[in-house]
Amino acid sequence: MDEPNDPQPHGRRRSLLIRHVLPPLVPLVAVLAGAELAVRLGWVESYLLPPPTAVARSLAADWRELSRATVNTAVAAAAGFALSAVVGVAAAVGLASSAWARRAFYPYAVFFQTVPIVAVAPLLVIWVGYGLPTAAAAAFIVSLFPVVANALAGLRATDPALLDLFRLYGAGRAATLLKLRLPAALPQVLTGLRVAGGLAVIGAIVGEFIGGNGSLGDVITSALTQQRNAKVFAAVLLASLLGLGLFGAINAASRLALRNWHASERDVR
Amino acid sequence: MGPPLLNPVPKSLSPAGLTRGVAVQISGVRHVFPGGVEAIRRVDLDIAPGEFVALLGPSGCGKSTLLRLVAGLDEPTAGRVEVDAAAGSDDGRPLDRRADVACVFQDAHLLPWRTALHNAALPLELRGVPSADRLSAAAAALAAVGLGGAEHRYPAQLSGGMRMRVSIARALVTRPRLLLMDEPFAALDEITRQRLDDLLRRLWADTGATVLFVTHSTQEAVFLATRAVVMSGRPGRVVLDRPIDLPRERSADLRADVAFARHAGAVYAALERGEAVPA
Q1: How would residue B277 be classed by pLDDT, with cut points 50, 70 and 90?
Q2: Prediction ipTM score
Q3: Domains of chain A listed by start with CATH number
Q4: With contact defined as beta carbons under 8 Å apart, do B266 and B92 qualify?
Q5: What is the fold, at CATH topology level, of the domain defined by B20-95+233-279?
Q6: Mean predicted confidence (pLDDT) in B57-75
Q7: Phi, psi angles (nearest 5°) of residue A56
Q8: Where are the domains of chain B?
Q9: Does residue B180 surpass a pLDDT of 50?
Q10: In A, which residues are within 8 Å of B109 by CB distance?
Q11: Beta carbons of A168 and B101 less than 8 Å apart
Q12: Could you give phi then psi for residue A21, rounded to 5 degrees?
């Protein structure tokens, strides 16, 4: 699929740019131009849909507040996500260890996925306190389940022949877990983390709607009450970029971890 | 394909030419799966130290089950499987199943996240052998199977035949006295398979280990083994137990020999008989 003889490295870089960076920019520019045009031509009222240029102006004008809010939300989402990763994988190891444990605890793991986070957020404020703790706790709650579910699926899918081999060579439970079951489950664990990353940002922002303090969630709610829609959009844009950033970071980590051995990360160019 | 198979087995694998194989006694073994299916009706088999036994039979006749019983991975429903350490051991040390028994399965079953070297070193790692020792032993084992130079490649970067060589190296790295092989070359092409047959013959001759080798191929069985055992269809029983009295040195042109054909014919006839036995 690659051009077989491409002598110039910078020509190669250019073709990479054209093939990978350009395509997603095309719909973006089209949508932005369409939105701008729709408002300028009076098809849509600007209080319903702020034109992209107004969003850009708001980004510039409120940059100090917005950037600080983005950092705060990022910290909350990352904290919740990290907790999910650690607790989720540990819980999956526990659940994978026995059928009894699965029957006893798995329903409660599912509960974490179904809990209506908007309804629980006020309680979180009372339990863990205003600001960062609430946002991080909300991020943790919504991002836990995909980690548990995927890690558990991975841990239970260990090749039985390899389990036999480890048994034959006298490996104990700990060695089997660390040297076989966990590494074998890594692709699924990373899939769970990928889903969890996006959810953690959403969870943090929902938590901040209720109990935020100088972060994207409460910037959005206060801008809404002031009918500053351009600022709402600016904050939403930053939240999306934050989610994308986290997703990209997890993807990069996944690629690094799996590139030598897993089909999903091999020969991807 | 891989490099030529002229590499001699390194010193660390071959202890002074002594027979290191163990004897295996299978007496009155019956095995019923948890679901109630009778896999093996009754098998009695005495394997002498250093023998190379090929085990044949139709699919589902309990060959693999028998191998698992010998490996100690499953317990027989009735009867006994004894791996006798004392017979044939050169130093009289007691048998340690973990160290002295090795398995090779139909697929290579390597850890895809480890290089060939670290895959081959795995059994020693699980037994707590220090890093430097186990890596040099693994490198020697890889060299013995003709994979010197491929130590740092990952399984995904190796061909099917090379992966199987790594699997054999991993089995050899503990210097096992009993090698259990479950159709190890069945998934490979004919040329690769014959090369690995040659390699295995040579390794067996050099290490003196006892080998129990499950196969579907009469040709492979006769070429490799000193004795061919044929089992009937499920539930499995032994229908033929035939010594393969061909020269110890076996080269590829043996396959065209009259004696070879006679053995292969007898084994094949027994397979057909076994197939026809009503369950």
Answers
A1: low
A2: 0.82
A3: 51-265 (1.10.3720.10)
A4: no
A5: Rossmann fold (3.40.50)
A6: 86
A7: -65, -40
A8: 20-95+233-279
A9: yes
A10: 159, 161-162, 165
A11: yes
A12: -90, -40
